[in-house]
């Protein structure tokens, strides 16, 4: 496979991933995981946010046997977004530092806000919060590449 073909495969694999950038797969984000799968260095079963449907879609694309996602890496949750409970936020900035996609804004000792369209639902902000003022809510619409790809293919 040439470099151009390899790059195209990485792009296709990456588009199927939910883009949470959560790191539960053991890679620094969705793109490095996609590169490892395209190179045959990682299995299709390492993405809890993608769940079994994501693992099946990846297996089909890569021409490998389908496998359920590895539940030891984390739970699969429906698409979610974070919400900061304003009354409880102390403005510590720990959630801002934990967010891999810069979806949380706010200043030190000021209330923070999640920019919903940017939030991937990775949940990394939740354990970072010392006062437990972040809750996860169902996403308002299709979120993540697997859901977006399914939406495109049925349209």
Note down, in words, how this protein is organized.
It is a single chain. This protein is of the alpha+beta class. The chain has two domains: 3-73, Electron transport complex subunit B, putative Fe-S cluster (3-methyladenine DNA Glycosylase II, Chain A, domain 3); 80-138, 2-Layer Sandwich (Alpha-Beta Plaits), CATH 3.30.70.20. Helix content is 35%, strand content 9%. The protein contains six helices and four strands, in the order αααβαββαβα. The protein has helices at residues 3-16, 30-38, 51-62, 94-98, 125-128, 145-154, and strands at 80-84, 104-105, 113-114, 134-138. The strands form two sheets. It has a two-stranded antiparallel sheet. A hairpin with a 7-residue loop joins strand 2 (104-105) and strand 3. The longest helix has 14 residues, at 3-16. It is elongated and about 55 Å long. The two termini are 32 Å apart.
Q: What multimeric state do the chains show?
A: single chain
CATH architecture classification of the largest domain: Orthogonal Bundle
Largest sheet: 2 strands, antiparallel
Overall form: elongated
Counting DSSP H or I runs of 4 or more residues, the number of helices is 6
- Helix and strand sequence: HHHEHEEHEH
- What is the percentage of strand-forming residues? 5-15%
CATH 4th-level superfamily of the largest domain: Electron transport complex subunit B, putative Fe-S cluster
Low-confidence stretches: 144-155
Q: What's the total number of strands? A: 4
Radius of gyration over all CA atoms, rounded: 17 Å
Helix/sheet category: alpha+beta
Write down the overall mean pLDDT.
90
- Share of helix among residues? 25-40%
Strand order of the largest sheet: 1-4
Q: Output the CATH class name of the largest domain.
A: Mainly Alpha
- What name does CATH use for the topology of the largest domain? 3-methyladenine DNA Glycosylase II, Chain A, domain 3
Terminal CA distance:
32 Å
């Amino acid at each position: 496979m040439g470099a151009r073909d390899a790059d195209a495969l990485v792009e296709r694999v990456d588009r199927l991933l939910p883009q949470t950038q959560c790191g539960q797969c053991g890679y620094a984000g969705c793109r490095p995981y996609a590169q490892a799968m395209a190179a045959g260095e990682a299995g299709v079963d390492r993405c809890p946010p993608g769940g079994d449907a994501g693992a099946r879609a990846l297996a089909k694309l890569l021409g490998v046997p389908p496998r359920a996602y590895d539940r030891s890496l984390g739970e699969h949750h429906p698409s979610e977004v974070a919400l900061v409970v304003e009354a409880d936020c102390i403005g510590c900035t720990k959630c801002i530092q934990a967010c891999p996609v810069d979806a949380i804004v706010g200043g030190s000792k000021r209330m923070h806000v999640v920019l919903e369209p940017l939030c991937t639902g990775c949940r990394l902000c939740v354990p970072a919060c010392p006062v437990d003022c972040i809750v996860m809510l169902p996403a308002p619409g299709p979120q993540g590449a697997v859901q977006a790809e399914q939406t495109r293919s049925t349209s």
